[in-house]
Amino acid sequence: AQKVTQAQTEISVVEKEDVTLDCVYETRDTTYYLFWYKQPPSGELVFLIRRNSFDEQNEISGRYSWNFQKSTSSFNFTITASQVVDSAVYFCALTLYNQGGKLIFGQGTELSVKP
Amino acid sequence: DSGVTQTPKHLITATGQRVTLRCSPRSGDLSVYWYQQSLDQGLQFLIQYYNGEERAKGNILERFSAQQFPDLHSELNLSSLELGDSALYFCASSVTGEGHYGYTFGSGTRLTVV
User: Fold this and answer.
1) Tens digits of per-residue pLDDT, B100-112?
2) Chain A residues in contact with B110 (beta carbon < 8 A)
3) Distance of alpha carbon A99 from alpha carbon A55, whole angstroms
4) What is the rounded radius of gyration, in angstroms, for the C-alpha atoms of chain B?
5) Which residues from chain B sit within 8 angstroms of residue A33, using beta carbons?
6) What is the pLDDT along chain A (115 residues), one digit of tens a residue?
7) Interface test with A, best of B26, B30, B34, B43 (most A CBs within 10 A)
8) Is A108 on the interface with B (CB under 8 A)?
9) Cβ–Cβ of A101/B104 closer than 8 Å?
10) How far apart are CA B64 and CA B114, in angstroms?
């Protein structure tokens, strides 16, 4: 069975601190896709990044970066120089190649960035 | 605006009642997904339709049903409502029947059962 674990339920940081959100996944499939979504207080789910299982390159987008390591089944997300607007719940998710696109979500990490 | 439209945004109803949630996918998207977000269960996949046909089914209760119409909009019907059905219901859409490229979520319908 597939599973996504976000062990950090809540994280609180002060503005300008760096913060890493952990994501560990479980699957026996060799072809899969990993995602991060952001859910701000307004409630919508905003797509942040997609990574396939064959691409272990890390990615940086502005203050956001992602570290994918198949050896540890992890797909961690780092926010550099956090800002108050980063306060949200962040979800890591997994989908398999032949599952019709069903996303398996982790429980989410609530990030609070204080001024 | 994500392009996925969900109505209504909020719904308050009594136990035992029946409600219908509506979703219009992004233009050009053929697949619609329904998810339920609750405090105790988190985000759970309910059901997927692709071009009018059911494609995948998740942990959807028998009291719940869905369909996708020829114009590709979808409706999620929830009947015999219980307090525990109170949740945020999301619809998402994608071009293909596979969600490999991620999909776009609507802003959700918040259902409160009293």
Assistant:
1) 777 899 999 999 9
2) 43
3) 20
4) 13
5) 99-100, 102
6) 899 999 999 999 999 999 999 999 999 999 999 999 999 999 999 999 999 999 888 888 999 999 999 999 999 999 999 999 999 999 999 998 877 778 999 999 999 999 9
7) B43
8) yes
9) no
10) 18
